[in-house]
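re: ur question from earlier - yeah i can do the single chain one, its not a big deal. heres the input i used so u can compare w yours
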Amino acid sequence: MAPNLSSDAPKFPSKPKHGEADVEAAAAAHGVDYLARAQWLRAAVLGANDGLVSVASLMIGVGAVNDGAREMLVSGLAGLVAGACSMAVGEFVSVYAQYDIEVAHSERGGSDDSSEVGRGGGGDEERLPSPTKAAAASALAFAVGAALPLLSGAFVRPWAVRVAAVCAASSLGLAGFGAAGAYLGGANIVRSGLRVLLGGWLAMAATFAILRLFSLAFKTHVASA
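and the output i got, formated as tokens:
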């Protein structure tokens, strides 16, 4: 009987592809965690998108019941500050909970794992998330996104032009943020951009319609002097 060469032959580990080897070598040489960086950038894009949609919808909703430019400016600024603080607090609590879970998980390891971490576990501790950095990044991203509709229409006096400027600037920002998030996540850029754009339009339209109906029902519309 002929020997089974396929089972007796030594098996060698497959070599990584040339492109993957170059990426891994570059990451190791520069000490860059590209996956972690992509996650942070994508979170920043999503935070900026939240700020843009929230403040744009808030300003348009106020514009539905009040024609004054000052009122829209104050409402947008209040939304920026409140939203950034809310995002920072929520992100701090969420990431700190994750931090506690990962620390507790590492402390529950076996004695061998504990001794190994004690000898050279500094890298694992450095990879743990920072609640303060996460909170600051989330608040900053929200503020950057919220500043786009705030600055685009808050200082325009004619009501129709002001609302149109907020909608136009917000649409451009939504399309850009959607495309950036898709690029960082490896998704279809056109489809993702349209999805984010349509979602933002729906939020702004719903806010304007509901506040307009409220104004007509209770006669609370205020015209600028």
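The chain is about 80% helix and 0% strand. not sure if urs matches, ping me
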